[in-house]
Amino acid sequence: MSERAPAGSAALPRRFAGLTRAMNAVGSVWIVALMVLVVADVVGRDLFARPVRGVTEILSLSIVGIVFLQLADTLRAGRITRAEVLLDRLRRSHPRLAHLAVAAFDLAGAGLLATILWASWGPFVESVRMGEYVGAVGDFTAPTWPVRLVIVAGSAVTAAAYLLLALAELRAARRR
User: Fold this and answer.
1) Nearest to 164, CA basis, from 12, 9, 10
2) Which of 94, 96, 89, 105 is nearest to 4 (CA)?
3) What's the CA gap between 127 and 119, in Å, rounded?
């Protein structure tokens, strides 16, 4: 699938698109690291009867972090689920209305991600303040604030991407 761009214009500024790609790459490297960790845990359990401590906690935190790291690039690449059948029909019969519908979708997405950002900020700050962690003291503990920071940053970048895409769609609608 090609990058999502309205009618021949660049949908996202180059540097911003580079940021989303970099976040996606970090998420991909994180996935590889998790795979290595899981294999090490399985080998440790089976061959040495010594599991890697904290694998469950690390995996549960990581899944959320990876989603938020890769969300903006998924949007940039046009891989967020939506009703393309209706949009394709609108693009043929009423191109301006199609641009407006996509802009409305993008503005709703920006609103949703801004809400997630707003709702995530307090727990992030509280997590840092109180030194929140997962795991069991004496066995394995991991701080939660890094993943909470990824949620905040990923929400902010994705909300900004939605806004930039909405502006591009509105510009395209105005040209029609």
Assistant:
1) 12
2) 105
3) 13
Q: How many CA atoms lie within 13 A of 25 on its CB side?
A: 6
Per-residue pLDDT tens digits of the chain, which is 176 residues long: 444 544 333 679 999 999 999 999 999 999 999 999 999 999 999 999 999 999 999 999 999 999 999 999 999 999 998 878 889 999 999 999 999 999 999 999 999 999 999 999 999 999 999 999 999 999 999 999 999 999 999 999 999 999 999 999 999 999 97
Please provide residue 53's backbone torsions phi and psi, each rounded to the nearest 5 degrees.
-70, 140
Q: Please give the Cα distance from 66 to 45 (Å, whole number).
A: 26
If you count DSSP H runs as helices and E runs as strands, how many of each does the chain have, helices first?
A: 5, 2
- CA-to-CA distance for 102 and 65, rounded, in angstroms? 27
